[in-house]
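Key result, reporting period 2: structure in, sequence out.
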């Protein structure tokens, strides 16, 4: 069924233009002014609204088994909630247990995701190492459309990678033309601090941020960057939450190292005061890692996005309801880590990003969709309103207001970290694969029509010249000394 979106202004990461958009059979087939509607086409009158690429959330965990329970949001409800908020693709994570076969874990997650209502892809986590992991990484790239491998530097005695695994896996990723990504917190320090804090009798959620101070994230971000520098492997650091991580990325990028960064909508807008809430349920609902930080870090994160030091926004949507969070009622280290946001990311970023003048509409498209598509090598199929691109689109009314609340959100979780936030600017229509899945405040998603999106590898990033330069690149201090 063809649809003509008429009378809107098309906004891409690079440019905007008043144009109609014709979609058919899941693809964009024409973009131009005053398009003639073919016979039988459905017409959506955009009425001066913006027509933008659907959002891509490069960091979600639907129905993740974690810390003794399973995230409450599944692939159908999660991709439906995403569509309600203008996000039309997620990149989720296959997270094998240590010693679990990577390919087996990938196929298990693929089974869970068959219920998805919109398109999705998977980063695959490397949580252990042997020859089978080396081999499976190659198979996943060559045969299953995986071009990114995740490494948790936190979560000791669970899924944490030590430096040996990082070195082997980063090296393998580079050989394969895949991106190494990391959760950058020093898991040994977290483990040590957790024990120290519990010994002091602090068992409530207020102990969580005390056990993961910014220095713990800064160390790991810098270590991952240095490992990647020596190994000449491109690196993507997820959920950067503090100045320490941003400084490490900024230095690396200023020296020409290929490092990308992601920021969560939550870390831009929620601060660590939430952990001092005397109500356990509200405080525990905010336990996620890295934790929400002192407010001063938010300005650093916003500026890093504006400056292009970090390129993408995500949510790390990993939901646990109050009874699940209560598993840590007497010991904060047992509170399942994770918060939601997949439905709210686009609207909170428009309100606090575009309405405040931090970003243009084009830059909004870049940080919510196009940059993730480029970094994970699915642009312009995704992240662009252009002929031949997938018809994943939002009609965005810059005047539409909404008050965010768990009482009205579509996320399958009993808490919303943006509770009560009033935002202006929202998707009034969402199209996924050329079908209307959200209109007039009503979801119309179909279980199981979401597709797995293959992400091709990059040309192997192994130029000897680049490696030599990476190893010999003088630090700023040496450069200054040499200049004397
Ligand atoms: O660490 C992650 O990204 C997963 C396990 C979600 N939980 C979280 O606290 N960020
Ligand atoms: Zn993480
Ligand atoms: Zn995560």
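The corresponding designed sequence is given below.
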């Amino acid at each position: 069924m063809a649809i003509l979106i008429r009378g809107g202004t098309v906004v891409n990461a690079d440019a905007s233009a008043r144009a109609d958009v014709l979609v058919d059979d899941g693809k964009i087939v024409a973009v131009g002014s005053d398009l003639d509607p073919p016979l039988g086409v459905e017409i959506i009158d955009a009425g001066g609204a913006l027509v933008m690429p659907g959002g891509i959330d490069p960091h979600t965990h639907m129905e993740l088994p974690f810390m003794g329970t399973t995230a409450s949001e599944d692939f159908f409800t999660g991709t439906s909630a995403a569509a309600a908020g203008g996000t039309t693709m997620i990149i989720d994570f296959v997270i094998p247990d240590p010693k679990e076969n990577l390919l087996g874990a990938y196929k298990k997650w693929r089974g869970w995701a068959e219920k998805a209502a919109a398109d999705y892809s998977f980063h695959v986590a490397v949580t252990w190492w042997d020859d089978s992991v080396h081999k499976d990484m190659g198979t996943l790239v060559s045969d299953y459309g995986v071009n990114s491998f995740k490494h948790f530097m936190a979560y000791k005695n669970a899924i944490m990678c030590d430096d040996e695994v990082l070195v082997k896996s980063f090296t393998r990723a580079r050989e394969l033309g895949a991106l190494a990504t990391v959760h950058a917190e020093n898991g040994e320090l977290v483990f040590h601090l957790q024990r120290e804090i519990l010994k002091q009798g602090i068992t409530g959620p207020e102990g969580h941020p005390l056990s993961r101070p910014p220095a713990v994230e800064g160390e790991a971000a810098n270590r991952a960057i240095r490992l990647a520098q020596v190994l000449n492997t491109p690196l993507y650091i997820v959920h950067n939450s503090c100045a320490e991580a941003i400084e490490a990325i900024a230095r690396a990028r200023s020296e020409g190292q290929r490092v990308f960064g992601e920021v969560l909508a939550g870390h831009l807008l929620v601060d660590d005061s939430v952990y001092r809430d005397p109500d356990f349920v509200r405080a525990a609902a905010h336990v996620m890692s890295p934790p929400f930080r002192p407010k001063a870090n938010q300005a650093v994160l916003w500026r890093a996005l504006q400056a292009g030091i970090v390129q993408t926004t995500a949510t790390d949507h990993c939901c646990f309801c109050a009874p699940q969070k209560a598993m840590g009622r007497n010991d904060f280290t047992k509170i399942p880590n994770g918060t939601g946001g997949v439905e709210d990311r686009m609207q909170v970023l428009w309100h606090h990003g575009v309405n405040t003048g931090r970003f243009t509409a084009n830059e909004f498209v870049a940080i919510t969709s196009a940059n993730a598509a480029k970094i994970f090598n699915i642009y312009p199929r995704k992240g662009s309103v252009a002929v031949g691109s997938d018809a994943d689109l939002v009609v965005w009314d810059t005047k539409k207001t909404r008050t965010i609340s768990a009482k009205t959100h579509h996320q399958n979780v009993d808490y919303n970290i943006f509770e009560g936030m009033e935002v202006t600017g929202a998707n009034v229509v969402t199209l996924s694969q050329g079908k209307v899945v959200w209109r007039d405040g009503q979801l119309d998603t179909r279980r199981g029509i979401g597709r797995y999106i293959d992400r091709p590898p990059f040309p192997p990033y192994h130029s000897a010249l680049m490696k030599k330069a990476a190893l010999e690149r003088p630090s700023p201090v040496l450069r200054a000394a040499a200049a004397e």
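The chain has a mean pLDDT of 96. The chain is about 35% helix and 20% strand. This case is discussed further under Risks and Mitigation.
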